[in-house]
Amino acid sequence: MKQKYQAVLFSESGGFIYSRSLGVQRIANVLREQFGWNVLVLDHFTITVCFEEFKNQLIEKILPNVLSDETKLIGFSTTFMNISNKWIIENLPKKSKKFMEHPILKGYVECLPFVDDNDATEFLKYLKQLAPNSKTVIGGVKAESRKYKSHVDAYIIGYGESQLIDLINYWQGKNPFMPVKKLDQECLEISHDTKGGNYDFSIVPTTYRPEDLVLPGEVLPMEISRGCIFRCKFCSYPLNGKKKWDFIKDSKVLRDEFLKNYDNSQTTKYIIVDDTFNDSVEKLQMFNDVVQSLPFKIEYGAYIRHDLLHAHKESISLLKNSGLISATFGIETLNYESGKAIGKGMPPEKTIEFLHELKIHWPELITSSGFILGLPHDNKKTVEELCQTVIDKDFPLDEIKIVPLWLQKDAREKKLYFSEFESDWESYGYSFKENSNEWTKGDLSYSYCLDLSLKYQKIAFELKRNKIATFDAMAAMNFQYISSDLKILSQKEFFTDFVDKRISYVTKYYERLYNFLQQ
Ligand code: B12
Ligand code: SF4
User: Fold this and answer.
1) Most buried of 41, 460, 473, 490 (most Cβ within 10 A)?
2) Rounded to whole angstroms, how far apart are CA atoms 455 and 450?
3) Which residues line ligand 1 (CB under 6 A)?
4) So what's the pLDDT on residue 76?
5) How far apart are CA 268 and CA 49, in angstroms?
6) What is the DSSP string of 446-458?
7) Ligand 1 atom with minimal separation from the 163 CA
8) Whose alpha carbon is nearest atom 46 of ligand 1?
9) Cα separations (Å) of 367 from 159, 305, 363, 401?
10) What is the pLDDT of residue 91?
11) What residue ranges in 241-290 does DSSP mark as E strands?
12) Counting beta carbons within 10 angstroms of the beta carbon of residue 101, is it exposed (0 to 12), middle (13 to 18) or buried (19 or more)?
């Protein structure tokens, strides 16, 4: 039987190890609640366009069954529509060569994961044929690239809930004074509330319906708050520098969300997507109170600032008691001067000592941190020292991620959110080659830092130094791994057969979806 959907939203997993992404679900929620529409989220879109068999299923079996002249909106949630970890992809087993060789997997992709503009146009045209009364809207963090104008009716830039409601009302003639920018004759840019200030996020739970096909026990993403109270100078997150109690979910709403998810899918495992989960002790206290009031235990992964854990030791027990099992730290550097320059000034010796202490007192916690090469006081010697130090198996983290500092030269003109470094790179001593994002500073350059980071990431992989950590550890639980396995399982071992597992996950997804649509 053909199901009638007023909106169909394309999305992709937040990460190569599957875990569903939250942004698209927020949009689905809004459309369901605000307009009473039937909404279908079509997940795994990037992988689908890589594989002929999935592409054919989508085009032949799924889309004709869900799109119709009743469809009013076709949306793309671009936030995770890329698989950009070049290094992991290069190291995946040969068997999946076809997958890896796909052009979209080579580095960051600006917007939709189509092979080229032509493909995008064909696909968008096809969608309009099936749903002649629909509007096509592109949202999510990559929407700001505004890449394809033909066959796209609007780009929504930034947080989407309030802006999408406004846009639909505008199209329905109920909101004629909404500020719109015309990108061309037909395509609009909506960017009057990019920070989502007109939408009270704190009182709205994220809920799932049967058509979302949440599996029993599935690990789900959740927001406790939006934004971060800090302003680290390399960071370009949208709500940096917010006030402590801004954008925090109401405790009753949070509790209901946990209970509903447990009822619907027995979910007890979460990915907390907050930019810095421990940015205030009060928030951790509230979270812990809610968790303790639940009739079941939860486990979760989160972004944690190690210096705040150190400064507010009481937050350690709050995190432990509330179920934190995987912490992603943002240590970024072991060069004290560079740390101070970015706003993370805990002395490196203290950091390392603290990590050792954590390891002793909380051995089951899965830990990871990113490290950035090319910060203001770095040079060839300090970046090499950093890599050598963290690559050591005895360095007290289960995983290290080394990346070059990324600066976009024209971020000020082109991007909605950009870091302090990007906004004023000249005064931090960076310079750029003409028409490129290749920065240089002292004896370092972007390419030098990139090569060095790839070299050491490869060593970490080959030496089995890196374990499955961060949100990947939580996502791996969607594939029946348990946290104690992950603590000892190296990425090298994990990835030997993981690509096959992911592909079979998508195969099953299409089977479930098709069966659901037949009901
Ligand atoms: C959590 C997270 C992850 C998790 C995801 C786990 C999961 N299951 O969700 C993990 C660790 C796996 C991850 C991985 C990566 N991430 Co990440 N991640 C985030 C983070 C911190 C939060 C994302 C989130 O859920 N936010 C909450 C939701 C509600 O917001 P949202 O997705 O933006 O959705 C809103 C709007 O965008 C919009 N919207 C979304 N979809 C749609 C659709 C329509 C139709 C409309 C109208 C609107 C709309 O409305 C939504 C509600 O307001 C963001 C930073 C941030 N604060 O956003 C970075 C961020 C998304 N990640 C980023 C990056 C770079 C990566 C990696 C490439 C890192 C790497 N090198 O490996 C990988 C990519 C993985 C992939 N699949 O491609 C960048 C993306 C930058 C860009 N322009 O592409 C961000 C923005 C951080 C940054 N500023 O650098 N990430
Ligand atoms: S790096 Fe982390 S702590 Fe710093 S502003 Fe960004 S999200 Fe906040």
Assistant:
1) 473
2) 9
3) 9, 12-15, 19, 21-24, 26-27, 75-77, 79-80, 82-85, 137, 139-142, 156, 159-161, 164, 196, 221, 223, 236-238, 271, 273, 275, 470-471
4) 93
5) 32
6) HHHHHHHHHHHHH
7) 47
8) 139
9) 30, 12, 10, 11
10) 45
11) 269-272
12) exposed
Distance separating alpha carbons of residues 13 and 363, to the nearest angstrom: 29
What is residue 1's predicted lDDT score, i.e. its pLDDT? 55
Q: Are strands 188-190 and 444-445 parallel, antiparallel or unpaired?
A: unpaired
Whole-angstrom CA distances from 347 to 328, 336, 405 are: 19, 6, 20
Helices 251-265, 281-292: crossing angle, 10 deg rounding: 40
The low-confidence residues of the chain, meaning pLDDT below 70, are 1-3, 50, 82-119, 241-245
Which CATH number among 3.40.50.300, 2.40.50.100, 3.20.20.70, 3.40.50.280 corresponds to the domain 7-198+502-517? 3.40.50.280
CA distance 402 to 386: 9
Give the distance between the most distant pair of CA atoms in the chain: 66
Tokens, residue 90: 């290069």
Neighbours of 56 (CB within 10 A): 11
Q: Give me the amino acid identity at 194.
A: T
CA distances from 40 to 54, 63, 332 (A): 17, 11, 39
Ligand 2, atom 3, lies closest to the CA of: 230
Instruction: Quote helix, strand, coil % in the chain, to nearest 5.
Output: 45, 15, 40
Tokens for 10, please give them. 């394309």
Name the pairing type of β-strands 299-304 and 324-332: parallel
Report pTM.
0.93
Three-class DSSP category at 373: strand
Per-residue pLDDT tens digits for 371-415: 999 999 999 999 999 999 999 999 999 999 999 998 888 888 877
Question: What would the DSSP string read from start to end of 114-163?
Answer: -SSHHHHHHHHHHHHHH-TT-EEEEESGGGGG----TT--EEE-S--HHH
| CA 352 to each of CA 24, 339, 403, 465: distance values in angstroms, whole numbers, following the listed order | 38, 14, 19, 17
Domain edges within the chain: 7-198+502-517, 215-488
Nearest CA to ligand 1 atom 43: 77
Q: What is the DSSP letter of 15?
A: S
Instruction: Please give the distance, rounded to the nearest whole angstrom, from the Cα atom of residue 366 to the centre of ligand 2.
Output: 20
Q: Which residue has the tokens 């605000």?
A: 34
Q: How many CB atoms lie within 10 A of CB 256?
A: 14
Which architecture, in CATH terms, is 215-488?
Alpha-Beta Horseshoe (3.80)
| Identical fold, 7-198+502-517 and 215-488 | no
Please tell me the predicted confidence (pLDDT) of residue 107: 35
Ligand nearest to the CA of 344: 2
